[in-house]
C-alpha cells in the first residue's frame, strides 16, 4: 500500500509539472510566434569595442548587448570589403558562390537575380521585411525588401543616428502583428572618420588619448589622429545602437526578437580592410536571443557571418537552401557543446576593383593561418592604396613614406611581403596574432603548411571556386588591369566577363 501511494503521488506530481510546462504562457508564445530578426550592421570596424577588451573604446550600449547575449571571440567575414561581405551574409554563400566578388559601385554583381537570400526566404514565409541604410549589392532587385529607407551610404552622416532609430520605430509599428526582418546598416565607422557631428560623441577623444591598433604596425601623430577619430565614429555608432534598441524595447517586441550585431569587415587602416589579414577579416559578432541564448557567454569557436542566415532560418523553422556552407549557431548560443564544429575558416579578396586588383585566399584553424597568392611576386595594388602616396586611391588612414620610416624592421619586412606577396604565407596566430613573421619557408612548419594547403584546395573543390583554375585567375586579372581607366563606370550596359564564364565553370562536374 505504501509503495502504491508513493507511486501515485509521483505520477500526480509529474502530471502537474507536465501541465504547467505545456500551458505556461512563455512557452506558448515562443512556439506560436516566429521570432523577429534584427540585423545591426556597422561599417568598417573590427573588434575595437569595450566588450572585446579594447582600452580606448567608448561603447557602453554594445557592451551591454554583449552582456545580455553571446559574444563570439573568433568571428570573421569571408571578404573584407563592403559589397562582397554583405552579399555573403545576405545569401549565406561565399563570394565565389554568389558572384559578388567586388564592389557594387564598380559593376560587380551576383551571378543571377534568383539566388535565395535573407529577404526572399523570409518574405515568402510571411515575414515583413525592411532595410534602413545602404544595400550595396547588385542587382538590388534580387533583394525585394518591403520597405527601404535612408537608401544612400550616408558617409557624410547627413542623416543622424536618431534618424535611423526613428525609421526603425516606424517599421516596428508597421509590422501589424506579422513577424519581421529588419537590417539596419549604420555608416560609422567608414571613412571619413568624423570627429564630432550633430553633437556626437559628446566627449570625443584626440590623438593623445589613443594608439593605433597593434596590427597596423605604425604609430605616428598623423596616424593617431585618424585612429582617434575612428574611435569617435565607434562611439557615435554605439549611441545609434542604443537608440535603436531603446525603440525596440518601447515597441514591446524585444522578447521575441533575435538581435545580431556585427561589423561588415575590419577597419580601413594598413593590413585591415581589403586584405585577408586578421585586421580585415575579424569582426565583432554579438547575438541576443531572449529566453533561448545563455546571456553573458563568450564563445571561442571559429564562426563566420555566413552562419547568420542558417541560424535565422532554423530559428524561424524555415527550410534552408541546400549546400549552404554556414553553420547554425544555436548550439553555441544555448551553451551546448556540439558534437562537431568547423575546423577551418575561409577568406578571400580580389582587391574589389581594378585599381586595387590582387587575388588572395586564406585559411585558418584555431592556431595557424595560411595565405595563398596565385600570382606571387606581382604587385599588390590593394597594398599600394595604403602604402604608396602616388596610388590614385591612397587612403588618408594609410601609412605614408614618412610614417613607414618610423617602423621597425619586422614591420617593414611585413609591408614588403604585403606589397609583393610570395606564393604562400604562414602565421602562428598563437605566438604571432598580428601576422608579422611569415613561417612558410620554415622547415619546422612544413607539415602544417602542407595540411593547410590541402584543406584550402579541398574547400575550393567542394564549393566550386573558379579561382582554383589558374586560367580563371589570369583572365580575371587581365581584364581588371585593362580597365584601370575605369571608363566602364559610365557604360550603362557594361558587364564583367566573369559573370558569364564563372557560372559555366562552376556547372562543370
Automatic annotation (TrEMBL):
Could you tell me which PROSITE patterns the record lists for this protein?
A: SULFATASE_1 (PS00523)
Task: Return the broad EC class.
Answer: hydrolase
Q: Where is the Sulfatase N-terminal domain?
A: 35-317
The residue range of the signal peptide is: 1-31
Instruction: Return the CDD domains for the record.
Output: SGSH (cd16027)
Q: Which UniProt keywords apply?
A: Calcium, Hydrolase, Metal-binding, Signal
Name the EC number(s): 3.1.6.6
State the InterPro entries in the record: Alkaline_phosphatase_core_sf, Sulfatase, Sulfatase_CS, Sulfatase_N
Q: List, alphabetically, the Pfam families matched.
A: Sulfatase
| GO molecular-function term, one example from the UniProt record | arylsulfatase activity
Q: Of which family is this protein a member?
A: Belongs to the sulfatase family.
Write down the PANTHER family for this protein, in alphabetical order: ARYLSULFATASE FAMILY MEMBER (PTHR42693), ENDO-4-O-SULFATASE (PTHR42693:SF53)
Q: What is this protein called?
A: Choline-sulfatase
Species this protein is from: Gimesia aquarii
